[in-house]
Amino acid sequence: MSAWVAGAALGGDGVQKAAGHALIAATTGGLTSVAIKHVMGRLRPNSGFDSDHFDWFEKKDASFPSGHTAVAFSVASSLSRDIKGHWDDVALYGAASLTGFARINDNKHWFSDVLGGAAVGIFAGKWATRGNRRVTASPSGVSVRLEF
């Protein structure tokens, strides 16, 4: 959000556009992962259950997909599409991957949770940067208009 405000204040349409896409992507990726978690109900590695244990429609402390990874990949994916180049993609997706590996290392997620989160995030980032939508923001709020 602060990047969007800075872009608006300094007249940087590219920065403002990229920040808006990243915000939409992160919100979409986060909300989608929460919805899937509620349905799947997969328990975390530190719960004492195996990776194939699911409590369907019981969120409790669900782990599939990884929400942190979904948000990291959604921002990386949207910025990757807005910033043209090769090395920025390596840096963005590398940083998002580190988020996933940290969640596995901390025993919070199974590897498949991280893969699911990455898939959700990439989808959200690509969706947020599609050209058939208009995102407008003003001091009173942000609105999204879909055009088909």
Account of the 3D structure:
It contains five helices and two strands. It has 148 residues and is mainly α. The protein has one domain (2-146). A hairpin with a 2-residue loop joins strand 1 and strand 2 (141-146). The protein is globular. The chain starts with a helix and ends with a strand. The model has no long low-confidence stretch (mean pLDDT 78).
The termini sit apart by 27 Å
Helix amount, in percent?
55-70%
String of helices and strands:
HHHHHEE
Q: Widest sheet: strand order? A: 1-2
Keywords:
5 helices; mainly alpha; globular; 8% strand; single chain
In short:
By secondary structure, the chain is mostly helical. It contains 5 helices and 2 strands.
What layout of secondary structure does this protein have?
Layout: H1 2-10, H2 13-40, H3 67-82, H4 87-105, H5 111-128, E1 133-138, E2 141-146
Antiparallel strand pairs: 1-2
Helix pairs in contact: 1-2, 2-3, 2-5, 3-4, 3-5, 4-5
